[in-house]
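Section 5.1 Outputs to date
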Amino acid sequence: GSQEVTHIVLLKVKEGTSAEDVRKVEDGIHSLASIPGMISAKFGTHESMYEDCADRSQGFTHALVTTCESKAALEHYAKCPEHIKVVEELIKPILSAPPLALDFIDPRPKERVRAAI
């Protein structure tokens, strides 16, 4: 069967970008979850989550993570007019540098081990 593909994009948003413009990106990303073949779409602002953690963000300020049903679904998503519109009209205008993007397939997706803290 087909394997889920995770698509990760790290963004460097220009200093001084309005909260409203960031919210528009957030809304745009979340709207992409309705594209056929998409499983989920997440977007957020980088935050330091715990004390004594050195900043490892390398200047990236925001991230988006989408999950697609398959490689074919990722290819469809990449070419979809809704996706292109979000990238061209909402994301690109607020970037201070090119995004960093990675796509991967988890070779062991069914192994979900959760331990209590």
